[in-house]
Amino acid sequence: MPPTKRRVRMARNYDRSQSPATRLPGSAPFVLRPARAALLAGVAFFLTTHGIPSMADDDPFLWLEDVQGDKALAWARERNAQSRARLESHPRFTQFRDEILQVLNARDRIPTVGRQGKWLYNFWQDDTNKRGLWRRTTL
After folding, report:
1. Whole-angstrom Cα distance, residue 73 to residue 65?
2. Residues 6+ apart with CB under 8 A from 18
3. Which of 41, 56, 106, 136 is at 20 to 30 A from 20, Cα to Cα?
4. What is the pTM of this model?
5. To which H or E segment does residue 77 belong?
6. Which residues contact 93 (CB under 8 A, 6 or more apart)?
7. Which three-class secondary structure state does DSSP give residue 133?
8. Run means of pLDDT, 10 residues per run, the chain, 139 residues
9. Given CA atoms 77, 78, 81, 82 in this order, what sign does their dihedral have?
């Protein structure tokens, strides 16, 4: 039976259907056409039968995951030494370091405050609390 204009129009409207099965509230309709469904099924079959290769299997730096291991710590010390040498070779390094330390160690700092619920929190470091102190208060 040859397609009529009405059947073609109905098919086009069906593809743009907005049935609840193909549409989430507030989103555009999604129509899963047979070709798309076949492609997705083929990809899913391939991935389940062949598996997805794990990135950890061929990671040459997997040994760095052992953060307390001697090899990882030696590698980190070596990289830190390279970084320090490069930074300290800059002609204005001591000037920048002194300016930054002056700002960080100033006594006239304005504390920054974060709010969580009814509490206000602040992390404070000074000469007395070198490692820092969490302070909490209400308004």
Report:
1. 11
2. 29
3. 41
4. 0.41
5. helix 70-88
6. 87
7. strand
8. 55 50 52 72 74 68 91 96 96 95 84 90 87 91
9. negative
